[in-house]
Design brief:
Layout lengths: L24 H18 L13 H4 L5 H11 L3 H13 L5 H6 L18 H8 L3 H4 L9 H17 L8 H21 L10 E2 H10 L2 H5 L2 E2 L7 E2 L3 H21 L7 H5 L10 H10 L7 H17 L2 H6 L8 H19 L4 E2 L15
Parallel strand pairs: 1-4
Antiparallel strand pairs: 2-3
Helix pairs in contact: 3-4, 8-12, 9-10, 9-12, 9-15, 10-12, 10-15, 14-15, 14-17, 15-17
């Protein structure tokens, strides 16, 4: 049994929100062993970094890592991981504070944005791509892209991000959760296409996508491990605020890596290396054979699979709100991700890039 000081995964009890059919006790025991070793040897409170304890709800967003860590703890019912995630939250820098508090400034309360299609994340994306000040707010050599963006164009970023509004009904919450996953999948996968280089995902963009995987967990009631009869549920307003903040951070993340050229056609027409009859099974088997994957790409594949499941439930909203990923594009995004890893191993080149919108980021990636 999992406790606050012991990780214990079960292939039958802890299948999570998405898993392959053939989970084994051996894999569960190995995952438990590695997580336990990580906790005992590398716990976040073992370092000497400067701690920040204010504005925890902001810091929970701290470039997605606290939310991802918390998501895994909740998904697999591991109290130890949940405790680690909260500790990680407590010491994260509040870099996002200017944005997330800015959108909730009282000056906007008298003129709130609507949650209609005109303010979908894809509609906001189109306007961001026309914003010359925002597009020039990040430079390749900026050491901290978010800080640089906020220093040069905070007002513009807040203006766009405040348009994200999550309706206070269960149906609206589900639709806008699916939209968030569609948006993250789109800018992560479409920016990985380059006219003269092999595909590569942006390391920072894929965190937006991976974090989205866990949003369904925060949106529904959950049984608690300490009281099997008990249920934990965040209030609707808190769930809506969490999703809205995640979506606003996604917009800022997109700007921070300058991925202005999103190749929708390149993704839709992508020809994968493999012609497997079951492409999802194929990519999950292939990622398990990658010796040096640190988990980032396995999470990408899971996030794409969950994103497809979430978005397929709302075909009418997808059309009305302008979602870009649909049909077999989810599969193509997963295959392209796996192909990029194989290409990196074969050519001894980077598995990912950072700041995809600048040509300097692509120098070490093989030409087509």
């Amino acid at each position: 049994m999992a406790t606050v000081d012991r990780v214990k995964l079960s292939p039958t009890k802890h299948r999570g929100i998405y898993s392959v059919p053939e989970l084994t006790h051996k894999s569960a025991d190995k995952a438990s062993e590695l997580l336990q070793r990580n906790h005992e040897n590398y716990h976040v409170f073992f370092n000497d970094e400067h701690f920040h304890f204010a504005d925890l709800f902001v810091e929970l967003q701290g470039y997605y890592h606290p939310l991802i860590h918390l998501g895994f703890g909740i998904e697999f019912d591991q109290p130890l991981l949940i405790a680690e995630a909260l500790g990680e939250t407590a010491i994260h820098e509040n870099t996002l504070l200017p944005l997330l508090k800015g959108v909730e400034h009282p000056r906007y309360s008298s003129n709130p944005a609507s949650s209609g299609p005109e303010n979908s994340q894809f509609a906001i994306l189109e306007d961001i791509q026309k914003d010359s000040r925002l597009k020039s707010s990040v430079r390749f050599n900026d050491p901290f892209k978010f800080r640089a963006m906020f220093e040069r164009a905070l007002e513009e970023m807040v203006g766009h991000a405040r348009r994200v509004q999550v309706g206070l009904s269960e149906k609206e919450l589900k639709v806008e959760r699916a939209e968030m996953m569609n948006f993250c999948a789109y800018f992560t996968a479409a920016s990985a296409q380059h006219s003269t280089h092999a595909p590569r995902l942006d390391f920072y963009y894929l965190h937006s996508l991976n974090c989205g995987l866990f949003m369904p967990l925060f949106m529904v009631p959950r049984k608690t491990s300490t009281d099997p009869k008990g249920m934990f549920e965040l209030p609707l307003a808190t769930r809506a605020r969490l999703l809205a903040w995640k979506s606003r951070v996604d917009l800022a993340s997109y700007v921070s890596r300058a991925g202005w050229k999103l190749d929708h056609h390149g993704l839709a027409s992508y020809v994968p290396r493999s012609d497997a009859t079951d492409p999802w099974r194929d990519v999950f088997e292939r990622i398990c054979d990658v010796d040096n994957d640190d988990g980032h790409f396995a999470k990408v594949l899971r996030a794409l699979a969950v994103g497809k499941r979430e978005c397929d439930a709302y075909p009418e909203e997808a059309i009305k709100r302008g979602w870009k990923i649909h049909g077999n594009m989810w599969t193509k995004a997963a295959q392209m991700t796996m192909d990029s890893i194989d290409d990196a191993m074969e050519t001894n080149s980077p598995k990912w890039i950072t700041t995809t919108g600048f040509e300097e980021a692509w120098i070490a990636v093989p030409k087509l």
